[in-house]
Amino acid sequence: MALLLVALGVVRLLNTRPGFDPYGWLVWGHQALTGTLNTNAAPSWKPLPFLFTVPYALAGHYQLWLWMVTSVAISLSGLIFAARITYRVLDPRPQRRRVALAVAIAAGLAVYLINQYWHYILSDQSDPMIVSLCLAAIDCHQCRRYRWAFSLAVLAGLGRPEMWAFTGLYTLWAWRSVPGMRRWLVGGWVVIVALWFGIPALTSRSPFVAADNAFYSGRRLHHDLVFGTIGRYLDLMPHGLEVAALVSIVLAVWRRDRTTLALAGAIVLWMAIEIAFVIHGWPGVPRYMFEPAGLLAVVAGIGVGRLLIDPPRLATPVGVGAAAVAAALVLSVIPAVVYQARWERHDLGHQRLRTRTINLLASEVAGVGGPARFHGCGEPLTRLEYQSMVAWTLRDNVATIGFKYGPAIASTRPIVLITPYPAAGSGWLIQALHQRTARCRSL
């Protein structure tokens, strides 16, 4: 409940709006209710947001606010689950619990240090949500809440296909270790298959439309595919945390700490899958690797905690050395924190200008009579970056909003150009061309 209140405050006070993809997901919800869903156009199909945007569409224009609060709240919850995992793995003695608690909270906060993480939270993308779902699944497994763990893994798998491998491994373990879950396991996989492939089969040119669209991404690597993907991953987190994670893995090998090694193995497996996807031809953009970056924060926190908790006494040489290493690792993160804060502040200014532009679009459309005023006046066109926003504002499908101005203007068919002015936040120009009726010409 506290997270929901914090999320509502963040949404209201920071005054940002969703990005291109989330507006497309909101369109999916509205179109699903009207029976006109078309998943051929951008954004690429993914079922996770669809679970929310369809019921939220029943609330009309409040659909936007419901999605924003939901997205931010789930994204912020990653701190809680990362901290719980870290504290439980450290398993401190009673006299060291305060230190372990401080380290666990720091590990949770470190999740927010993922490069541009706050940009994706404030633009209401699903990637930070999936990080939280993955961490929550691990937390529930540690608490022996195996049905919850599997359910959360299924939800995460509805957002990222990389998660299918982990859900599959968990299915094999649970099938053998928790026989009472077998129907639950089958049901989870039915949900994954039905939502990932069944809905596109009914609403697009192919059940594999998401995979087909990914091949045409302009952000995919064209050379040095393996090390280029690894480089993208290493750029996600401060290098001090990456060193701390390596220290943690060394300590885990020495202590035979299977849990920490399993977490590190999950990072390696995710990256191996991502590299395979990139070699296959998919883009492998950095946000697809937020999940292993979130796990890295946990592994790094465990390592720092070991250095501070396990030495016998701070006054001994071992204790002093361990504390010095832990302090050096923590201090090394400070420049990255400062840089991230400055970048996010700069980005927030741009997002607020963009919010003003989007709000002015709604005002302009309302000023000429609302979305219904555009029906029957030909294809609406706008700049590509605003395609999904215009679709949501006009209560239309993204597939019906064009962005290729030249061919459309050169033709003789009716079109309506909905163009933002060059200066951000300064309004929109609506032009009705080649119209055959007075009602449409008056636009």
Give the structure's gist in a few sentences.
This protein has 443 residues and is mainly alpha-helical. The chain has helices at residues 2-14, 20-34, 47-56, 63-76, 78-90, 97-110, 117-122, 127-142, 146-157, 163-177, 182-203, 209-214, 225-234, 239-255, 258-280, 290-309, 317-367, 387-393, 405-410, 438-441, and strands at 379-381, 415-420, 428-433.
Write out key terms for the chains shown.
443 residues; mainly alpha; 3-stranded mixed β-sheet; 66% helix; elongated
Give a written overview of the molecule:
The protein is 66% helix and 3% strand. The protein has 20 helices and 3 strands. It has a 3-stranded mixed beta sheet with strand order 1-2-3. The chain is elongated.
List the SSEs and their pairings:
Layout lengths: L1 H13 L5 H15 L12 H10 L6 H14 L1 H13 L6 H14 L6 H6 L4 H16 L3 H12 L5 H15 L4 H22 L5 H6 L10 H10 L4 H17 L2 H23 L9 H20 L7 H51 L11 E3 L5 H7 L11 H6 L4 E6 L7 E6 L4 H4 L2
Parallel strand pairs: 1-2
Antiparallel strand pairs: 2-3
